[in-house]
Every structure is written in structure tokens, then in C-alpha cells.
Design brief:
The protein has 172 residues and is an alpha+beta fold. It folds into two domains: 115 residues, Nuclear Transport Factor 2, Chain: A (Roll), CATH 3.10.450.10; 37 residues, no CATH class. It has three helices and seven strands. It has a five-stranded antiparallel β-sheet. The chain has a two-stranded antiparallel sheet with strand order 6-7. The protein is elongated.
Length: 172
């Protein structure tokens, strides 16, 4: 059979890209949920009773941890005043597989996301009341977080106690 790769249908691709991005976010265990900024490229390959979707997406990091399990559309993005030093943008290449015969939801075949912070000189904000800077996470930061949570545990009447699993971002 012929298995040509063709450009994806523009009318449905944004919904398919959103589903694919949600699959990527559910697969990740570190960081923050990626939100869809735009679809850069999309191709489909039909093989007998299934299809493979090849996507290239521009993404922005939201304020939701991937551990929250939240869908990317329900997460907030950084506000404009902290955009210069708080935002992370990047690109994800995603491959999904869908069986038309089983009419199943797409399965994540593979993905690769490359992200980096927005360079501070890209956004100059003279009128911003508060400026943020992302700091590298150190042992000192982990100790501060552990002590703060220890205090929270000791002051509350909780049935469960909390422990720091990981410090992901420090803002100054």
C-alpha cells in the first residue's frame, strides 16, 4: 500500500495538536505544563486502518506543575509584568498514532521538546512594579523550602504531613 505523508487538514489540526500536547504533558514528570502557542507544521500518514500524525508545535510554559494533572487549557500563563524573566518557550516535535478501526483516542508514539527561558533583553519593562529573576536551584533553596514546610506541618492540625519532593523554580 501507498503510505504517503500529506499536509494535515487545517480545519482539524488545532484540536488534534491540543490532544497531542495533553498526551505529552501527561507523560512528563518534571517541570510545568506546556500550553499551545501555535502549530508550526503538521503532516499525516495513513497506513491501512490507522494514521500517524507528525506535529511541530511552539509551546509556552504555564504556571501549573505537570504533577497537577491539569489540562493545558485550564492553566494560567505568567502575567506580562514577569514575562521578561519568568517565561519559558520552546518547540515540541510530536508523533501520535491513531487506529481508525478501533476508533481509539490517539496514542503518543514519541516526542522531543526543547525549551529555554525568554531572554531578559527581549522584554524591557520600564513601568513594571515588580521584576522577577529566575535563580538556579541550590541546596540552600531546598533547605529553605524544607524548613518552611516543616513549620507549616507543625503549626497545622493536619491528618497528613507534607514533604518537599523537588524544588523546580526559584524567583527573586
Amino acid at each position: 500500500n501507498e503510505t504517503s505523508i500529506t499536509p494535515a487538514d487545517c480545519d482539524t489540526i488545532e484540536a488534534d495538536a491540543g490532544v497531542a500536547l495533553d498526551l505529552v504533558n501527561r507523560h512528563r514528570r518534571d517541570g510545568y505544563v506546556f500550553g499551545l502557542f501555535r502549530v508550526v507544521d503538521a503532516y499525516e500518514q495513513h497506513i491501512e486502518h490507522s494514521s500517524v500524525l507528525y506535529l511541530t508545535l511552539d509551546v509556552l510554559e504555564t504556571e501549573c506543575s505537570v504533577l497537577s494533572g491539569k489540562h493545558w487549557e485550564t492553566c494560567e500563563y505568567s502575567d506580562a509584568s514577569s514575562l521578561a524573566s519568568n517565561s519559558v518557550f520552546g518547540q515540541c516535535k510530536i508523533i501520535t498514532y491513531t487506529s481508525q478501526q478501533l476508533k481509539k483516542t490517539p496514542k503518543l508514539y514519541g516526542f522531543n521538546c526543547t525549551v529555554s527561558p525568554v531572554p531578559p533583553d527581549l522584554f524591557e519593562c520600564e513601568d513594571c512594579a515588580v521584576k522577577y529573576e529566575i535563580l538556579e536551584v541550590t541546596e540552600q533553596h531546598k533547605d529553605i523550602a524544607a524548613k518552611a514546610l516543616e513549620k507549616y506541618n507543625s503549626e497545622g492540625d493536619h491528618t497528613n504531613y507534607f514533604n518537599v519532593d523537588k524544588v523546580e523554580k526559584i524567583l527573586k
